[in-house]
């Protein structure tokens, strides 16, 4: 199995267009590496590729990744479909860039499928796609020899959904476990996680590689950066640090390669020279640039 | 007035992610300049900037344009709003990238506002924006000293709209005339035009610069490129050449700088060495790269 990290930033990207914080300014000046919005691609055979989420930067990300270029026929493409972990704008907007592509298959949990129904109707007018329940029947098989299961890891409803209070609770946020039948390699893809859980422990115990929600380094990060008092507790992302953070949990699984992704523009991990980065490295976890290819 | 051509390609951009035609392949290999999806920015005073459409590539386009960078306050931005010419996906998707920005004002014609009502409701949940009718009251004034009028130039309904047959005809596609009160400079912005009309003659006669729909060079272009038999007659763009084309019409206005934009990935004008490019140049019309700045 090959995995390409197409993008590694949270919604808004890095730099974020309307943010003049020190980190974003450093990215704009080229002093820190820019990052596009979180998205990945996976293949079992090098010919059939599946997207993990569809970021708003997808067109640029596909253009930057030779393995995903079209050909040899004028409309041939190695892209077979998209696995959505949630319905957040930064994970689904890229579907519009894929409109008109023939025969794509989209996997998502029931609440995500329901809220995207109007978008699906619009996209179907360019080319009909098949939509499937990622949580049904205990799993599914992808062309290229990958076996996938989806696992609920959060309940946060996207902000754009009206009537939040009356929205049914449900598996709004899932993680994927992707296993290569040929190599036995296991990827856990969890770029959006509300809280650590036994489900994640079970997934990490079997994984060769974990791509984990690294949105916020600290629980008070948003409050201390650009929006005093805002905080990010309600944003549905467990922080890296702190007693409920993911770093201590990840430390229990030294057998897996552990990579933080979906980094918010407020996150000090964006700076390779930061104490935060050194601390994470001390636990054996990694921060990688856009375009990194992993083999499992 | 300053105008920046943020992007100059039609929907899908150049190269288009799923197109392996000779032109797209040349762009991927770096033999032809890539182009992001059509979008522009305009300012009268250098401090207050207005977007002309909101392309899906907007985040990348804003990052590439220093004049549109945020600051000095952490959430200060020179962006005041967006003027939409139509509701096509490649002109409105970028609104999602602007979500959460305070105090933006969006101008659009009534059919465009109506079809975007669900999107507006979703975007308002991040930060409320003011939406205005671009065709009301004979015009409007933008911060920075620009006076704008909108003019219907097409009736094409976006493909994603259901029940096309029962959709009310109306001004789905408009052009903008932007005048700088201080310099007297006049920009005509018409990246989507169904057919030439006396309205366009009137606008061009007064313009210092015309940004015009250059989607297709020839009327049979789509049919001869990648989708045999498809044709583009129904796509709502007048071709550059031919008896009903725009090039002959533009030739009547040598006093204006005439620039083709919204170039489809099938358009031979994308190649600076093409006979098509020489022919257009012979008429005094220009093809310019992304990022070009114009002063009027």
Description:
The structure is a homodimer of 296-residue chains. The first copy, chain A, has 296 residues and is of the alpha/beta class. Chain A has a single domain, classed as Metallo-beta-lactamase, Chain A. The first copy, chain A, has helices at residues 22-28, 58-63, 89-92, 110-115, 117-124, 198-206, 221-224, 246-250, 275-282; strands at residues 2-7, 39-43, 49-52, 79-83, 105-108, 130-133, 140-142, 146-154, 173-180, 186-190, 209-213, 257-261, 285-287, 293-295. In chain A, the strands form two sheets. The first copy, chain A, has a seven-stranded mixed beta sheet with strand order 6-5-4-3-2-1-14. In chain A, strands 7-8-9-10-11-12-13 form a seven-stranded mixed beta sheet. In chain A, strand 3, helix 2 and strand 4 form a beta-alpha-beta unit. The longest helix of chain A has 9 residues, at 198-206. Chain A is globular and about 50 Å long. The model of chain A is unreliable at 226-233 (pLDDT under 50).
């Amino acid at each position: 199995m090959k995995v390409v990290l197409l993008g590694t930033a949270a919604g808004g990207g890095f730099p974020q267009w309307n943010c003049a914080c020190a980190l974003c300014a450093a990215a704009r000046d080229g002093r820190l590496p820019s990052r596009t919005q979180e998205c990945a691609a996976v293949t079992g055979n090098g010919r059939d590729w599946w997207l993990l989420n569809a970021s708003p930067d997808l067109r640029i990300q596909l253009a930057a990744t030779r393995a995903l270029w079209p050909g040899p026929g004028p409309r041939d493409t190695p892209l077979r479909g998209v696995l959505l972990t949630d319905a957040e704008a930064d994970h689904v907007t890229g579907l519009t860039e894929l409109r008109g592509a023939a025969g794509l298959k989209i996997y998502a949990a029931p609440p995500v499928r329901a809220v995207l129904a109007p978008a699906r109707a619009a996209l179907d007018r360019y080319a009909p796609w098949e939509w499937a329940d990622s949580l049904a029947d205990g799993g599914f098989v992808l062309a290229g020899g990958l076996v996938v299961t989806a696992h609920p890891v959060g309940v946060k409803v996207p902000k754009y959904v009206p009537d939040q209070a009356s929205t049914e609770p449900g598996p709004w946020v899932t993680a994927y476990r992707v296993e290569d039948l040929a190599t036995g390699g296991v990827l856990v893809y969890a770029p959006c996680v509300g809280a650590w859980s036994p489900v994640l422990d079970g997934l990490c115990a079997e994984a060769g590689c974990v791509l984990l929600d690294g949105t916020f380094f600290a629980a008070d990060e948003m409050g201390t950066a650009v929006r005093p008092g805002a905080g990010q507790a309600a944003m549905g992302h467990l922080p890296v640090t702190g007693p409920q953070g993911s770093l201590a949990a990840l430390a229990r699984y030294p057998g897996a390669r552990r990579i933080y992704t979906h980094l918010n523009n407020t996150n000090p991990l964006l700076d390779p020279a930061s104490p935060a980065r050194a601390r994470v490295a001390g636990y054996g976890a990694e921060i990688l640039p856009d375009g990194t290819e992993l083999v499992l």
